[in-house]
Amino acid sequence: MKNGLDDVIATETILSDVDGAAGRLIIRGRSLDELAGATSYEDMLALLLAGFFDPMPDPPTLGALLGRARRDVFGHVASSQSALLSLPTIDAVRVLLAGIKDRDDLSSALALIAAPAVFAPAIIRLKSGEEPIAPDPQASHAADILRMLHGEPAREEETKALETYLVAVSDHGLNASTFAARIVASTHAGLTSSILAALSALKGPLHGGAPGPVLDMLDAIGEPSAAGAWLAAALDRNDRLMGFGHRVYRVRDPRADALKEAGRRLSKVATARDSRFALAEAIEAAALKILAERKPNRPLKTNVEFYTALLLEALGFPRESFTLVFAMGRVGGWIAHAREQALYGRLIRPQSKYVGPRPTQAA
Ligand code: SDX
């Protein structure tokens, strides 16, 4: 049963193109290589959202409006009940997100873009017994996220590393969570409904839930010499190696190197960081080798999540929040796709082929 829609073109889009054979990602006509590390998240949002809201403010104004949106959505956190804190962070964020009015205008879009950036640090701090930190509307999006998480301004290279990540994951063709956002937008439900569907899809370990388990794998292996045996045992159990393989890329994910370098530059404690990277590189090499041996007919290369795990760990995010950091970047793409679908698309309603039993006599 072809139930993964492999290679099916489900829609046309002007937003992004993922070239799986060449390992190339284009977002609104720009190559990822020229965007990641050189573009602010605010400018990336302006690029993604251009044409989907009228009027569309220029990038500096959009950045100022996003800062005010962070300040405004922070009010939802104050209403969070202790029951919220018993939920996994991503589920607590979903509950808070549902409180944002389900509309299609730019202010709702900015509230939804601000939401994961504000809610996740607040819930993380509440869960560790600390008070949430109110947003600073004047700060850049990436700098404000780290300030709300740690309670103090981040170092320049930390802000730059997070910004590189948010830009690199901001949009990526018709991945599962973006497709979920488009399906909901095609029924003309509001943007909040689209984002709730997308965040729910992203949560899955086959999609955006992989970075945390990548760290679990590194911790379980512990040292380079143990990698081969551990990975072989995992594959013997038919486990998936988190951070490897992709539905579209048949070569290395072009985002992997940008994120690896961004993480490596975080020289908080150089020796400790270097040994963490050395372990990761050894595990990556061993994994690529054994996957090639075990699955010779299926190219399984490093995907975006493998080095994301080290980058987000170095930035001080708890691993159970990594998927939410992914959402902080991808929400810009989800909004753009939802708007493209609502403005120019139709209700998404594919056919299915019935293969179940049929009535024995003519009904
Ligand atoms: C993201 O689509 C996007 O663009 C997603 C994303 C984005 O930016 O939105 O790029 C983000 O989701 C990246 C992927 C993060 N997920 C992981 O790292 C989880 C581990 N990877 C996989 O489970 C898997 O590679 C998928 C889900 C990502 C893609 O798998 P497919 O295309 O559905 O392939 P499949 O499940 O049909 O597997 C084909 C074969 C199988 O072997 P056989 O049964 O044919 O013998 O490859 C094997 C699989 O067992 N395989 C793996 C594997 N991935 C596929 N075996 C071991 N480890 C893996 N990681």
Explained architecture:
The longest helix has 25 residues, at 270-294. With 363 residues, the chain is mostly helical. It has a three-stranded antiparallel β-sheet with strand order 1-2-3. α7 (141-150) crosses α8 (156-168), α9 runs parallel beside α16 (322-344) and α11 crosses α15 (304-314). The chain has 16 helices and three strands. The mean pLDDT is 93. It is globular and about 55 Å long. Helix content is 56%, strand content 3%. S-citryldethia Coenzyme A (SDX) is lined by residues 4, 169, 172-173, 175, 206-208, 210, 240-248, 295, 298, 300, 303-305.
Q: Largest beta sheet: what is the strand line-up?
A: 1-2-3
Mean pLDDT: 93
Cα-based radius of gyration, to the nearest Å: 21 Å
Described by strand count, sense and barrel closure, the largest sheet is: 3 strands, antiparallel
Pairing-aware structural class of the strands and helices?
mainly alpha
**Extended strand count:** 3
**SSE string:** EEEHHHHHHHHHHHHHHHH
Low-pLDDT windows of residues: none
Please tell me what the overall shape is.
globular
Span between N and C termini?
28 Å
SS element count, helices = 16
Attached small molecules: s-citryldethia Coenzyme A
What oligomeric state is this?
single chain
Q: Strand content of the residues, in percent?
A: under 5%
Helix coverage percent: 55-70%
List keywords for this structure.
363 residues; mainly alpha; 56% helix; 3% strand; globular; binds s-citryldethia Coenzyme A
